[in-house]
Amino acid sequence: MKVIIFEDPSVWELYPVTLGRAAFAITCATMRMIDVVSQIPCTAFGFLCRPYLEGISRKEYPESNYHFGLSSVCEELQRTVHDSPDENVLFLNARLVPDITLLPFFRECIAKNERVSFIHQNENHSPAVACAVVPAARLLKILQQLPCFSVTDVLPIDTNRLTEGLRVEKHHPLQLFEYPHHLVKNNMELFLKNIRHRLESPVPALTGHPEKRWSSGRWTELREGVFVGENVKLGEYLVTDTSKGPILVDEGASIGPFCYLKGPVYIGPYSKVIEHSALKEFVGLTHTTKVGGEVEATTIEPYSNKQHHGFLGHSYLGSWINLGAGTCNSDLKNTYGSVAMQYHGTRVATDMQFHGCIIGDYSKTAINTSIFTGKIIGSCSMVYGFVTRNVPSFVNYARSFGQCTELPVDVMINTQQRMFKRRNVEQDQVHVELLQQMFSLSNWERQMETEPLSL
Questions:
Q1: Do 2-178 and 183-445 show the same overall fold?
Q2: Is the pLDDT of residue 140 over 50?
Q3: Euclidean distance between CA atoms 265 and 286, whole angstroms
Q4: Chain-centre distance of CA 387, in angstroms?
Q5: What is the spatial distance between Cα 269 and Cα 247, in angstroms, rounded to a whole number?
Q6: What is the reported pLDDT for 454?
Q7: How many CB atoms lie within 10 A of CB 308?
Q8: Contact call for residues 319 and 335 (beta carbons, < 8 A)
Q9: I want to staple 403 with a disulfide (CB 3.0 to 4.6 A). Which of 80, 107, 335, 398 is the partner?
Q10: What kind of fold does domain 2-178 have according to CATH?
Q11: Which of the four pLDDT bands, split at 50, 70 and 90, describes residue 42?
């Protein structure tokens, strides 16, 4: 049985996280859905994402059994239908929360081979297909009959038609990301389960090194609850607390002297923890990150830097972000009440007492930037001073000094080239085209100069 992952229209509710990446490439609790599905026994995986993200997805995942985009998926389905006309496919929503303990659920779906649709219901959104076992021939026919759409559109798949006649299940363990704050909430809820699975079953992680794309996924226990991969460097006077969960330091990572780690914590391949740092519970670093200061309950995507002193808590950082020295965020209101987020002008309750910030790919902060509770910073923005409200993408943001101007995409392209060179990453046309599409797609939100402060 083939596995097909699809993005639905609600993927835009996760903006700005999904501006520069497909939903299946979001890290939460050290995992992405693409990591989870790769553990499903299957010969081929198809990914139906927004067309403008196909190029970057192929670049980051060149594996021969991964098929990105409509044409590639249709070709794979045609082969499937030709060889076995009655075969089914496992159809998964890209917004699925990457819970590695769902693997037995997916394997059972494949083993039973029963045509069924698992519906996710939420009081704030319309019901959505979370998972389905559908006829490959039917899916192929629907994909071949899709109307014309732009490269930035979510593929207009008629899921009602796709799942027509299937048995419907509404009670199941599947959850979908609905808003960006769910990345922080689910990170804490799933963290311990996911890293324990890493210890029990080898789950390779991307290393960021072309000569060895994946780590071995194997661990050596150095002291009680502290596990390391190959070629790890630990500085002197390292203090660890594993009373609430293990600490995993993956291949090639290094930790400076006088650091404090309180598990559960995961430090990804070739990441660097600066001296005198403190990482406290539910911190998940992906590959090639640099972290210093105090960090708590936060996910940091590849190639991002928080190298200097300052606090970062209950947050999500995209890729290629740099936080200037002294940058801090608040993750608790002075009233100790629940944090509310602003999404597209609508106030949404998180039911979370602790919530920090969400920062999109490529954004930077200046020294001593202060980010208020529950704020969102878009992609490719330069931020200065106090962040008292959400920040659009592609702006120079200094509203506390009375300035906020659009940041031309050419500036970001040149900045990207310099950043890539520092990390020995080659800037390809696919990276440039992605930034151009991100700039165009975020035009709608750069209208904030006259809006009041939001404390």
A1: no
A2: yes
A3: 11
A4: 23
A5: 14
A6: 43
A7: 17
A8: no
A9: 398
A10: Spore Coat Polysaccharide Biosynthesis Protein SpsA; Chain A (3.90.550)
A11: confident
Which tokens sit at 114?
A: 């029963």
C-alpha distances out from residue 415 to 123, 253, 296, 304, 398, Å: 42, 26, 29, 14, 19
The verdict on pTM exceeding 0.85 is yes
Whole-angstrom distance, CA of residue 209 vs CA of residue 213: 5
Mean pLDDT of 125-133: 91
Q: Are 279 and 263 in contact (CB under 8 A)?
A: no
Closest CA to 267 of 245, 290, 238: 290
The amino acid that residue 345 corresponds to is G
**CATH number for region 183-445:** 2.160.10.10
Angle of helix 429-441 versus helix 409-422 axis, rounded to 10: 140
Looking at 18-58, which runs of residues are DSSP E strands? Answer: 45-48
The backbone region for 220, taken as left when phi is positive above 0, alpha when psi lies in -120 to 50, beta otherwise, is beta
**In which residue are the tokens 């046309």 written?**
429
Question: What are 158's two structure tokens?
Answer: 């008629």
Token pair listed for 170: 């509404």
* Under 8 Å between Cβ of 168 and 117: yes
Q: Tell me, what amino acid is at 23?
A: A
